[in-house]
Amino acid sequence: MKEAAFISSKLKKDLNKPGTFWYKPPDVGFLAAQSRFSIKRPFDIFFGRKGKMFAIEAKVCKALTFNIKALADHQHKALQAYIDSGNEAFVAIYFERLKDYGIIEYRILKTQQAWKIDVLMDIESSAYVKGGGDNL
To answer: How many degrees, rounded to 5, is the angle at CA 4 between CA 131 and CA 7?
Structure first.
């Protein structure tokens, strides 16, 4: 599954609840092709719930280990800047082999180079939410 399919088929569906707001900035550039001259989208989704705004970057992982290098430099900078401005940032990771996903706070995710799925599921529940955004 590609990231665009994960966002449209799973993530948006789970985030689209009464009392929530989400927005996916469109891809930019000629036919959405990225070049070194394209404006980089800071993250995939702006999400609002209960008076708070969140940034969400979506990733698809083929293995059962997520490597922090899957995030581009501009994504690290944007997520950290969003946190530094007083907001919260998350990374939604779809594990293809499990056909399931979870959402982890970026401030936790960035503390290690790689995360195994079993370790992610064992950390504090506020940091990793299995299967979606109901607990954001």
So the answer is: 30
